[in-house]
Amino acid sequence: MKKIELLAPAGSFEKAKIAFLYGADAVYCGTASLSLRSRAEVEDNDLENTIIYAHSIGKKVYAAINIYAFDESYEEIKKQARMLNNIKVDGIILSDGGVLEIVKQEAPDVDIHISTQANVVSSHSASFWAHNGAKRVILARELNKEQIKDIIQNTPKDFETEMFIHGALCFGYSGRCFLSDFLASRSANLGDCAQSCRWAYNLYAEEKNNPGNMMPIEYDEKGTYIFSSKDLCLLKEIPEIIEMGVDSLKIEGRLKTEYYLASVVNAYRTAIDDYMASPKEYDYTKYLNEIEKVKTRSLTTFYFNDRNNKDFQEFEGKQYNPNYEFGGKVVEFNEDKSIIEIKNKLFVGDELEIIIPNKIEVYKFKIEKLWDAETDEEIESVSPR
Length: 385
Fold this sequence. Notes:
Mean pLDDT: 90
Strand content: 15-25%
Structural class: alpha/beta
Helix content: 25-40%
Shape: globular
C-alpha cells in the first residue's frame, strides 16, 4: 500500500506545530487576505516561518487562495502568488479559473491544488483541471465511495486526489453558500462566512383560516437548528479509503482549538498507522472514543457510504462533552515543575489526561500540587488569564 498523506488545518504557526507534533504530514493555511477563512489567516511572516519549520522536519505546507475573485482582487492575488512562490510553499489551493491562470504565471514553482469549492464531482471535471496545470483535486464532499473510485481510476495516473475525512459540513454545496451574505452581509465565497447555518431559528406557520396570525413551530425552547449539519467522521471507513488509493486525507477546522487539533489529528494518525501495520486487527472504536471527547456536534458519514443518506441534519446545535474540556498546554516540560498555559480553571485534585503523540492511549493523573509560575507560591486553583 502506498503512503497516504494526513493533512491538518493550521490557523496559526503554533497550531501548525501542534498538528505536526501529533502526526500530520502536511498542513493547510489561509493567506493573509485571500482564503476562505479570513478569521484564521496566517500572516506572511508566520506563514514563512511555518514553511521553514515544516521543511526542516520533512513536512509540507499548502496555502489557500480559494476565493472567487472579483477583478479588483487580482493585483493582490498576483502579489500573494509571487510571495508564495518565493517562500517555497508546497501547494496553492484555489478554485477560480482566473486565479489558476495568475498562479501559473506568478508561482510557476508551486503545485496547484483545486479546492473543494470548485465542486469537482466527476472524472471529466478532475481531468479538466489536470490538463490545465493542477497537480491535485480536493474532491467535493457530496461524493460517495463509488464515485470517488471512478474519479481515481479515470484520471491521469500522476494526478492526486484529496478528500475530507473529518470536520464540519457546510449547508451549501461543497461550501458554496450565499446565506451568510444574505443575512449578515458577510460573503462565504470571499472568506468571511458568519456560519449562519449554525444559528438557531424560529419557524412560524400562518393559520390557514386566519391570515396574519403566525403560530410558532419550535423544536425546543431555543428554536431549531434547521440548517445545521452534523460533523463528518470517517474513522470507521479508514481501511476502505486507504485501499481505494486516495492520496491525501483532510481534516477540517482552521478555527478549532489546539486541543481539538491534537486530539483529532492524533486519532486519525494512529488509526492510519495501525491499519497499515495490521489490517486485520483494525478497530475504529478506540479512536472514536477520543473523538467523542472533543466533538461539538453529532457525527455522520454523510454521503460516503450511501448517496441517499439523510441522517446528517443536526437539530440540536452544538453538543459539547461536559466531561472533558481543554485544561492547558505544556509549554515547558521539567521533571520537577512543568509550565502550563492554562485554558480552563483547574483545582488541586482534578483529573487530567495527557494526549501523547502517536499513541491512542492517554496518560491520566490527578493534580497533586499547583504553583504560580511567576511567584513560585503553592496555590489551590488557577484560572486562564
